[in-house]
Amino acid sequence: MNTALRERSPIEEALAAAESRFSAANPKSRARHERAAHVLPAGHSRQTLYFSPFPLTVERGQGCRITDIDGHEYLNLVGDYAAGLFGHQSEPLQRAALEAMRSGISLSGPNTREVEFAEYISRRIPSMEQLRFCNSGSEACLFATLLARHATRRSKILVFNGCYHGGFMIYGAADPGLSVPFQTIKSDYNDVAGTRAALRANATDIAAVLVEPVMGSGGAIVGSLEFLAMLREETQRLGIVLIFDEVMTSRMGPGGVQGIRGIRPDLTTLGKFWGGGFAFGAFGGAREFMRHLDVRSGGTLSQAGTFNNNVVTMSAGLVGARDVYSPEVCLKLNALGDSLREQLCEVGRALKAPFQATGLGGVMNTHWSSGAIVNPAQVAPAGAPVRRLFQLEMIERGFYVAQRGMINLSLPMLDTDLSGFVSAARDFLIRHADLLPRT
Ligand SMILES: *Cc1c(COP(=O)(O)O)cnc(C)c1O
Predict the structure, then answer these.
(1) Does ligand 1 come within 6 angstroms of the Cβ of 271?
(2) Domain positions in the chain
(3) In a 3-state reduction of DSSP, which class is residue 348?
(4) Distance (Å) of CA 292 to CA 115, 130, 189, 305, 426
(5) pTM for this prediction
(6) Which of 2, 15, 257, 424 could potentially form a cystine with 249 if both were Cys, beta carbons 3.0 to 4.6 Å apart?
(7) What is the position in ligand 1's atom list of the atom closest to the CA of 281?
(8) Does domain 91-324 have CATH number 3.40.640.10?
(9) pLDDT tens across 395-411, in order?
(10) Does 251 sit in the ligand 1 pocket, CB within 6 Å?
(11) For residue 177, is pLDDT > 80?
C-alpha cells in the first residue's frame, strides 16, 4: 500500500470511491470536459458551475428536472444559483420572448416594454423610485457603487468579509485579482457593535455600505433585523449611501428582503430572476441619487450598455415578475422553502448529526455543524470533503446539488420532490454517521 493511500482519512476514502463511481457513470460529460479544457480555461465558462472531478454537461431541462448527456435525469436543486426560479420551460416566458423576437430585435430606440417593466419594479420595490437597466447583477452593483461614490464625493466602501457582489466585487479573505480595486473597509456580517464603530471611525471617507440583506453565496446567512436597522440608522446619520444588493434576495419576498424587514435603502441592485431567464441587471433608488444620471438636468453620469433595454429581457422580465412570480406565488414558494429548510434541520436534530440548513424562503445552504451560523467565517469551504461527498452521493441518487451546499427552489417543484430529497439526505447521514465531523 502506498503512503498516499494509507494517509487518507475515512471520509477521504469514501470521497475517492464516490469520485470513481461518478467518473465511471459519466463518460460523455468527462470527455466533453476534457475537450472544453483546450479552449476554455479549466474547461468551463462560469466558475460556480465547476466542481471536481468534472461538471456534468446538461443537455436539456423540463419543469424542475435536467438531463445530462449521459442520459441521467436529476431534480435540479442548484436552480442556477437562485436565477432559475421559473424552472426550465415556462410557457409564459417562452411566449413573451418569442413575441419580442417576432416584433424585431436591436430596434435602436426606446421600446414599448421598458417603461412598463420599470414602473412595475418600482411598484414592487418602492425604494426604487427611479432605476436603470443593465446586463447583469455584477454591472448593477458596480454602477450603484460608482454612483454612490460620485454622489458623496467619497471614495471608500464598507463591505462585509465573505460577501459577494458579482464578478467584479468579491470580498473574501483575499480579494481576487478580477475584483475592482476599490478601497474597502471590511467588517463582519451581523457584527452590530464592530460595524457601527467602523462606520463612525471612517465616516468622512465612506461613500457607501454595500450589503446583501441575506448573504447568498457566503452560505445563505440571514442578516439580523438589529444589524440591518443599525446600518440604516448609522448611514443616514453619517451621510453614507446604503446599498442593498438584492440581486439574489429579491426573490425572498414580494418587495424583496427590504419589504420583509421594513427597511428602505438608498439604492438597490437587482438581477437574476428579474430577467425572466435572460441576462439582466438593474440598479435604482431615491431620486436624490438617481438624478445624477439625468443629463438633461445637470446630471453628469452617462450610463451606457448596448443591451440594457434589449426587447427579449424587457418582455420576458415583465411577464415573469408580474404574471408568473406574482406576490401570491412568491409567498407560496418561499413558504415551501421555509418548510424544506425546517425538515432538513429536523433530520439533523433527530439523528443528532452535525447537519442543518440556513437561509430564508426558497434560498438555502446546508452546513455540517450544529451551532448558529451568523457569518461566513463559520461556513466550511465548498471543497471540504464532506461537502464534496454529499454532492456526489446526492447526484448519484438523482438530486443535482451544488458543491458548496446551496439549494434554490424553482416554481415547478412539488412537496413530493422535496420529501424525496429530505429522505436522501437522511439516508446519507445514517450511512456515513461515522465519517461526519463531530459536533
Ligand atoms: C448573482 C449575484 C450578483 C451578480 O449577478 P450576475 O448577474 O451573476 O452578474 C451580485 N450580487 C449578488 C448578491 C448575487 O447573488
Answers:
(1) yes
(2) 3-85+336-344+359-420, 91-324
(3) helix
(4) 19, 11, 30, 17, 54
(5) 0.97
(6) 257
(7) 7
(8) yes
(9) 999 999 999 999 999 99
(10) no
(11) yes
